[in-house]
Amino acid sequence: MKYVSGPYFEPDFDPVLDRFGTPGVVIDNETREDCTLVKVDSVNRDGVLLEMVQLLTDLDLVISKSYISSDGGWLMDVFHVTDQIGRKLTDPSLPEFIQQALVPSHRPGNGPSPKFTTCLGNVVGPGGPDLSDCACLEFTVHDRPGLLSSITQVLVDQGCHVASGQAWTHSGRAAGLLYVTTTADAAALHPSRWARIERLVGAVVDARENVPGERRWVCMSAPVRGRVHTERRLHQLMHDDRDYERGPAPTPVDEELLSMVDRAATTTALSALRARAAETRVTIDNWEERGYAIVKMTSRDRPRLLFDTVCALTDMQYVVFHATVGSQGPLAIQVYHTARHESLCPWVGATSDDIVVSMDATQEYYIRHKDGRTVDSSSERHKVSRCLVAAVERRGSHGAKVEVRAADRPGLLSDFSRTLGEHGMSLLRAELKRQKDEAIGTFHLVTDSGGQVRPEALRAVRTRVSDMGISLDIITEAPGWPPVRKTSVPASATAQERPGSSLRTLLWSHLGKLSNNFGYIRS
Hints:
The chain is an alpha+beta fold. The protein has helices at about 50-60, 95-100, 145-155, 190-210, 230-240, 255-260, 265-275, 305-315, 350-355, 380-395, 410-420, 455-465, 505-515, and strands at about 25-30, 35-45, 60-70, 75-80, 115, 125, 135-140, 160-170, 175-180, 215-220, 280-285, 290-300, 320-330, 330-340, 360-370, 400-405, 425-435, 440-445, 470-475. The strands form 3 sheets. Strands 1, 2, 3, 4, 11, 12, 13, 14 and 15 form a 9-stranded mixed sheet that branches. The chain has an 8-stranded antiparallel sheet with strand order 10-7-9-8-17-18-16-19, sandwiched between helices. Strand 11 and strand 12 (about 290-300) form a beta hairpin. The protein starts with about 25 loop residues before the first strand and ends in a 7-residue tail after the last helix.
């Protein structure tokens, strides 16, 4: 394969990492005027990248750009972050929270995990939604209208209350996690009741399937501490259900599109290009000289895109060594590199043009399988392509988005989902959470035939559920992302070599300058 440009690996740089001191987190509000830089350097360990992205995502922060390097047993990562409306991180307690959450040894006396209330009012850490006393119902089944209503009605009939949960649909399949407790007048959830509920839910699903040999998974598990992150578990359920096998093969990345974006000076031209790029595309090649497989993705930018792709790579047992992430406007590009051997810090000695693709957005991940393999065979490339596309599209924002609020009570989710079915609507995605005594739900809706829901139908649902004590708001997404930001960098940030600067300072300066060349990606 002919590889035109790529990172340069400095062979004499290897011993440098041995001289770094204690791992830590730096919150930099000085370098950029438009965002906060979260810089992490630490000894590398399995899953630490996903852990960092998951934490920043759970904090309701927008990761607009990032640069990741975790080769040679050490990681040095830079994340450009803002809150949900594009503001820098000014809460004085947030830097300490991030540092203590990512580096437990920095907690005073190695005490309990810290907590933080996000800009959206969600609590992360102790004091947030406690699911340790909840049983969990997991399911992956064939999607159909009224599915969630049928399942939640079984729970209501068995004296269960859905405290929180999420459900996704993709390629005709549905997966969900519902965290349930018993109502005040019901018996405790003993193992015998878990098995009964599991059988009843399975019977409801089977009664409606009418498809011989149709696969499905229903499992009721006991309350437990330390559950897998809900959204990661949903990715795992849908991956295990092989939702990625359905549909046509992924379309290769449009190289002509990449070269055309810089030349598209008019709004009309950009709109035409973005229309071509609406489809998620994947190309996988091998860079044999360096022992890397290069996985390039183009897709629409959206919230949590970085989290979803890192989830997919991690659960496919691929390890990220280096990455560059960025997007401008609604189009995002991802390029993954899978390493066959240990190589160190590809950005050393490289110019930004060596790494940055001429495009609105770029993401480059240097990865390899845990067993040392790259994406060598055509069948493996085909599977990885499909899995990455599925991970991006499971959370695609389709349909009408509504937010509902009501006093938390048993049967709330069942009542609301049944009302949707009575008005000819189906759920594409659902999320229900609890804040103190209030239940808050976010739902993406289409008609039973998969069409767009008409405004008058939404108004009819709003009127109907208001009689149940449920308020419903129709959410209109902002047409573009990210919020308007300045792109200038303070002059002081360009001074990279000052007398007396430490090696780490110079290295972070190089990383910061390099990451400033990338566009934004919403995650």
